[in-house]
Task: structure prediction
Amino acid sequence: MIDRQLYRARKAIEANDSQQASLALAQAAQYAPWRKDLWEQAGIYALQDGQHQTAKSYFLHVDNPDDLSTAGLTALGDIAQFEGDLKYAIRLWEEALTAGNGDIELHTRLAEAYQQLGDLDYAIQHLTALVTLNPGESVSIYQLGLLLAATQPQSSLAYLSLAAELDPELSSKTKALTDNIRFARNIDDPSYPLVSAGQSLASIEEWELAEIALSEATQLNPEYADAWAYLGEALQHTDQNGLDELEKALSIDPNSVAANTFMGLYWQRQERYALALIYLHAAAKLDDLNPALQAEIGNTLGLLGNISAAESHYRRAVALAPNGSTYWRILANYYIKYETKIREEGLAAAREAVIQDPEDSASLDAIAQIYLLLDSPFIARRFLDRAIAADDNFAPAHLHLGLIHILEGNTLEAFQQFLIAKTLSPPGSQTAVQATRLLETYFP
Result:
């Protein structure tokens, strides 16, 4: 009987049928319970089939994890990770790595797991091993560069530069980071490179790494107001509060632009808009040539309900930075959001944004929204097609194209575009919420 089950298992494996292979191996093991290797193989194939609990039950027949092969230890570690026991998963993967001869997949698992636990030293060790095993793989090199930027900024430069060489698409993320770290070498303050790296990591939304860099900077120099300010902002993006750190920054330097700005943003997120404006106005007074502050004041005034007063600040932002699409697009979006002066001012602002950057998907999407509001869906669609051609991962353009398909009565295309928009959008984002609502409304 055991030979028959082993034959079934072999045929299932040849057919890539993990479920049947697992069942046949488990049945074979019933006839030869001393064959721990059969229980292990049954567990591995059950896991491949996505049956975590079944796989675990098979592995329990192997009394001692030391009797497992490298593949078995790896699979058992995967089950532990699935169950949320990351420390046990790490222990099993480390044992598997020791038993093997250096495995790219194991180093990848371990690097990710240690980073998830916040143990960057071990994560860096495994990423370094990955880079050694696969020196032409840009993703591992880039990740190693990011982790080093948060802990040893100077050591990150070679890896970040190499990653950009191997994958030019990464250069937009690495350039500011490497430039800032290089500049920081000229500042006689050991905390400054970490603050500079933390700011740059935040700008590419690597908030957890930014928090690590900035926290270390505050330990090295507890009187560095901007370090505390940026740390307070980073903490909010990692589901923490950050208010104590912002108050610390302001107590050290009440005239810190960063501290006033981030305190304003903090109260804005708490929907205390009047209080937010106090700090944003203070920041703008200290840095009166900063267009971002003017735009944020405009945004906060709008949230407070003072829509007419918001316009002057958006226009001030454009006046401070007329070259480039960013603030023209922000101005256009103000008119779109509040559906005011669409034809008189909104269209002109959106056109200027597209003139400044004809390949910017966000600007193309903004002018498409203007034409939708002006009841010109045909023209709007032309701009949305251009937006998607420039960046087919730009979710809002898919959302608005779906709306045009609804207007045209093409529900199948509308459904597809709404679904794409939802898939491409971060959960909870405005586009994701709108796409979900539209799917529920038109396709209940």
